[in-house]
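Handover notes (outgoing to incoming on-call)

Open items:
1. Colanic acid biosynthesis glycosyl transferase WcaI: sequence verified, structure written out, both below. Nothing else pending on this one.
2. Nothing else urgent.
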Amino acid sequence: MRILIFGINYSPELTGIGKYTGEMGAWLAARGHEVTVVTAKPYYPAWEVPVHYKKPAWITERIDGANVHRVPLYVPKEVTAKKRIIHEFSFLGGVFPKWFGLLIKKRYDLVINITPPFHLGFYALFYAKLKGAKLITHIQDLQVDAAKELGMITNKRLIRLMFRAEKYLLNRSDAVSSISLGMKKKILAKGISESDYLMFPNWVDEQAIQPLQKTQSLRGEWGIPLNDKVVLYSGNLGEKQGLEIIIDAAKRFSDRPDVHFIICGSGGARDRLKAMAEQARLKQIRFYPLQPYEKLSALLATADVHLVLQKKSASDLVMPSKLTGILASGGFSLVSAVPGTSLYEIVDTHQLGILIEPESAEALADGLQQALSTDVTLYRERARQYAERFLSKEQVLQEFERNLVRLTSHEKQT
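Colanic acid biosynthesis glycosyl transferase WcaI C-alpha cells:
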C-alpha cells in the first residue's frame, strides 16, 4: 500500500505520540509498504527543536524506510493554551506552501491522520477527497474534550465550534481508531458507528523491554543502594498529570533517607516541580532527563514503585502511554484513576498495581506507604503477562495492517 501519515509528532521523539507514530511508520515500511510522513521538526517533550533540525526551514529525510517531510513551526518556551493554539496552527501554515503542493501530485491509497491536533484533519480530508484515498483518523487524545474538561479553553462559543469541526472530520473519515475502550465509548457517543471504528491500542516491544534485576538497573550509575526504595515517575512533565502532588507526598517521607523519589523527563512543569522540591528542602527527590531508548529497561528496573498519575478531568480523554513500558518491564504501579475508566478497569481487573484517588497528595502518600510494604512478586508477574498477551507490538500492528488492507480492498472491489 501507499500510505501517507499526517501528524505533528514523529521519530526521533522518545515519548508520547511521536514515539508510537514513528514506530508505526517504520513497521509499515519494513512490511514493504511505501510510507510518506508529513510532520513537524522534533520538539517534544522538551518543547525545543534540536540545533541540527533548525535549518533549513523545510527538511526531507529518510527514517527507518519512511520518507519524512518536516515543516517549520512555532515552539513556545512556556506552554500556555493560547501559545499552544498558535503552535499548532503554525504547523498547518508550514505544511501548505511547500510539501502540500508536492504531495497532491501523487496519489496514496491511505491517509492516516494522527490527532491531536484535531484540526490537522482538514488537510488530510482535503487530500483524501481530492485523490480518492481512504482516510483514517487515529485519536491518541480527545483534544477538544480535554481542552474543555481541563479548563484550557473557557470560551463556550469556541468550544462549541471546535466540537462541530471535530464531528465534521470524524463523520467524513472512512474509519476512526483510538487506543482504549473508554475513548471508544466517547467516540461512539459522538455519532461514529461501531462498524467504522477500529481499536488500535498503544503497544510495547516486549522483546526490547524486559524485566531486569536491580543490579542491571541505573542504581549503580545514580549512586542508589540496592536495598533502598525508589519511587519513579518517568515521562512528560506536563499539566495533565497533576504532578505537584508528588512533591507534597514526598514530604511524608522526609525522615526516610532510604526512600528516593526520581522524576525523569522533561516538559512544561519541570522547572516548577524542581523549585517546589528545593523550597521544601526535599533532598531525596532527584530530577533526571529522559533516558535514551536503549536504557529504558534499566531505568524501569530502577524502581520499586512506578507512579502513573492522571487528573480526574482527563479521565478517558488521554491514556498514559508510559504504562505499556512499565508493564513490559514487570513493574509495580501506583495508579491514580477514576472508577469506571479504562485505566481503572485494566489495573483493577488484572490486578496490575494499587489504585488510588486522583489529585490527592494524602491518597498518594497512603498508597506509597502500602506499596513500599507490599510483596509485589505476583504484581510483577501479572504485569509482564498482560504486556505479552495484550500489548505485543507485533500483534497490535499486524491487526492494524489487516484493517488497512480490508479498507483498501473494499475500495478496489467497489
